[in-house]
Amino acid sequence: MVDLTSHYGGIALRNPIIAGSSGLTASVQQVTALAQAGAGAVILKSLFEEQIEATALQAQAETDAYYPEGLDYMLHYTRQHEVEKYLDLIREAKSAVDIPVIASINCYRGGEWESFAKSIQEAGADALELNVMRIETNPAQRGIDLEQELIDLAISITRTVQIPVVFKISDRFTNILSLAQELAKSGVKGLTCFNKSWQTDINIDSLEIVQGPVISTGHELYNTLKYTGLLSGKLPQLPISASGGVMDYAGIVKCLLVGASSVQVASALYQHGVPHLTKMLEELTQWMTQHGYRAIDEFRAMLDASKQADQELYMRSQFMRYFSSKA
Predict the structure, then answer these.
(1) Cα–Cα distance for residue pair 173/283, rounded to 1 Å
(2) Which helix (H) or strand (E) holds 47?
(3) What is the pLDDT of residues 230-252, one digit of tens each?
(4) How is residue 20 annotated by DSSP?
(5) In this structure, are strands 41-43 and 262-265 parallel, antiparallel, or unpaired?
(6) Which of 33, 113, 208, 277 has the greatest CB tally within 10 Å of its CB?
(7) 10 Å Cβ neighbour count for 132?
C-alpha cells in the first residue's frame, strides 16, 4: 500500500486530487458522487459577485416599477437569499460526505466579503478559496495598486475567519513571487495556480464577441508546472494547489514533482465523466508503486526551482538547453 496523504492549505487530504470549483460541484448529489469516486476534497462551485449583483439588479428593476419605497429592503433580501442558498449547499455537503468541503467566492473587487466569509465558516466549510479575477480596463490604474487591493482583501478576510483562506490567482502579474510573498504575510494559507479567465473569440458572421473554449485542452499544464515549480522552490512555506491543464495521472505526477501539495481537476471530468477521477487515482498509485515510492512526500518537489543548480534559470533552462543542443 502507498500513502497518498497530502494537504490543501494545511488541511489533511486522503489524496492530492481535488475536484475543482465548477458546475460539477454545484449540488450535494454531485459532491457525493465525487467523494465516492475518490476525491481528496471538493471545492464548491463559486458564488460570483456578479451573480449576486445581477440578481439584485433584476429585483431592483421589478421593485422600482411596483414598490419603489421597498427598494432597499428588496435589494438586501435578494443578496441575503443568494448567500443563504450557498450556505445551505455547504451545510448539506458537509453532512453528506466525509472529505473536506471548501467554499469558493469569485469576486473582482473588495466589498462585503468579510461578513460572508464569516458565514461560510459558521456553515461548516473547511476552507475558503477566494478567486479574485479581473482584467483592468482603466489605463490610469497602476499595477501596484491592483496588487495592493488584493493584499488588503487578503488581510481583511484572514483576520475575519479562522479557517484556511487560499487565494486563486492568475498568472498576469509582473512578479508573482513578490505578490505570493505578500499574500503569505497577510495570513493566506496557500495559493491556487491558476484561475481560468474568460476566453475571447469572434463570430465573423454575426460580427460579435463570443466566448471562446471553456474546457481546458491540457496545454495550460505547461504554464502551471512552470510557476508551481518556481513558487514551491522560492516559497516552500506556501502550499500550492496546481490548477489548469491536469487531464490525467501523468499531469498529477508532474505537478507533485514540481512541488504542488494538491492538484485540482475539472475539465478532465467534464470530458470523461466522474469515474475518470477513480482512474487517475488508480494510475497514480500504480506509478508510485512502479517507481518504488511509498508516500507522496518521497518525490514531491523533487524538481522544483530549489533543486536546480541555478534557480534564476528555472524558467529559461529548457529554452537554453534546447538551443544549445542545436548549436
Answers:
(1) 35
(2) strand 47-48
(3) 999 999 999 999 999 999 999 99
(4) -
(5) unpaired
(6) 277
(7) 22
- Please report which helix (H) or strand (E) contains residue 249, including its range: helix 249-257
CB contact set of 275 (below 8 Å; sequence gap of 6+):
37
Q: Say if residues 104 and 87 touch (Cβ distance below 8 Å).
A: no
pTM: 0.88
Instruction: Name the region of 277 (left: φ>0; alpha: ψ -120 to 50; beta: rest).
Output: alpha
95-125 pLDDT per residue, tens: 999 999 999 998 765 566 788 899 999 999 9
Nearest to 318 by CA among 302, 297, 303: 303
Q: Is 167 helix (H, G, I), strand (E, B) or coil?
A: strand
Phi-psi region at 317: left, alpha or beta (left = phi > 0; alpha = psi -120 to 50): alpha
Task: Kindly tell me the number of DSSP H helices and DSSP E strands found in the chain.
Answer: 11, 13
**Phi, psi angle pair for 163, to nearest 5°:** -70, 155
Classify 134 as helix, strand or coil. coil
What is the Cα–Cα distance from 58 to 13, expressed in whole angstroms?
41
d(CA 60, CA 231): 45
